[in-house]
Design goal:
- The relative contact order is 0.14.
- Helix 2 crosses helix 10.
- About 3% of the residues have low confidence.
- The longest helix has 20 residues.
- The protein is 46% helix and 17% strand.
- The chain is α/β, with parallel strands linked by helices.
- It has 13 helices and eight strands.
């Protein structure tokens, strides 16, 4: 009787069998660049804004006034930590209501001063704890969806890692929605999906394939507007090159939509999201 293959080879086989699961692993890579890594490289003069003026500050969301190639912009990003201390501080990248309210406050400030808004999505999902529910987590997300839809300024949303359900979508209502090549964007995590559908969270790689969560899948469905290429092996292999690829994409799309009037920007955003999921028109 032949011995069982080691766990590493079994995992490798699963990765080869399901390329979508490989993308999930790359999106979660511990060395993958986070929002602050891109802000440092792309947005000089960044001044961080804190607090929602209601409850407190949420370090899982970073908001800054900065410049992009000489143009004033607002950047809002979901931020994960790297070491244990940072992960706890950032709540593992899972925002609470005060984070979403801070983000909305800063986006509305940006619109007031005619600054384009750039958001970076990177979260496993909104924090589901009792304290977040007590402070109105669902209401905060819903309000962001509504208010982002009518911001009278250009809005570009970029999924840079994990785009987890409403936790990411609360910052994802943009005129242009982009994904990095190895990021994922889905309504539920593969593990949670597998636990519901297959009654086994260990079948997450099967769920990842079924969820169609890769950038190529979503571009094919018309749910995103473009894919930002990454260096070979993933963004963590060369964060500088990944940032430059993102710079080129942001520059191109900002030029594309900046010519629109505030009214046209709102109408463009509304029409874009109304078409999502309509495959028969």
């Amino acid at each position: 009787m032949s011995p069982e293959p080691p766990a590493e080879s079994t995992a490798a086989a699963a990765v080869e069998q399901h390329p979508a699961w490989r993308r999930v692993q790359l999106a979660r890579h511990p060395k993958r660049p986070h929002a602050l890594d891109y802000i440092e490289r792309l947005f000089p003069g960044a001044e961080e804004i804190h607090g929602d003026r209601s409850f407190g500050d949420d370090a899982a969301i970073v908001t800054v006034f900065a410049e992009f190639e000489g143009r004033p912009v607002v950047v809002v990003g979901e931020q994960k930590g790297r070491d244990t201390k940072q992960k706890l501080l950032r709540n593992f990248g899972m925002p609470k209501p005060e984070g979403y309210r801070k983000a909305l406050r800063v986006m509305q400030m940006g619109a007031k001063f005619h600054r384009p808004v750039i958001t970076m999505l990177d979260t496993p999902g909104a924090y589901p704890g009792i304290d977040a529910e007590e402070r109105g987590q669902a209401e905060a997300i819903a309000r962001n969806l509504r208010e982002m839809a009518r911001l009278p300024t250009p809005v570009i949303a970029v999924c840079i890692g994990e785009g987890g359900s409403g936790g990411a979508l609360a910052l994802g209502v943009g005129n242009i929605v982009l994904m990095l090549e190895n990021s994922v964007y889905s309504v539920i995590s593969p593990e949670s999906c597998a636990a519901i559908i297959y009654r086994d969270s260990g079948k997450a790689e099967l769920a990842a394939a079924a969820l169609r969560l890769t950038a190529e899948d979503l571009e094919g469905f018309g749910l995103i507007d473009g894919i930002v290429p990454e260096p070979p092996g993933g963004a963590h292999e060369d964060p500088g090159a990944a940032a430059e690829n993102l710079r080129a994409s942001l520059r191109r799309h900002l030029e594309e939509i900046s010519a629109l009037s505030p009214e046209a920007l709102v109408a463009h955003r509304y029409a874009k999201f109304r078409k999502m999921g309509n495959f028969f028109a």
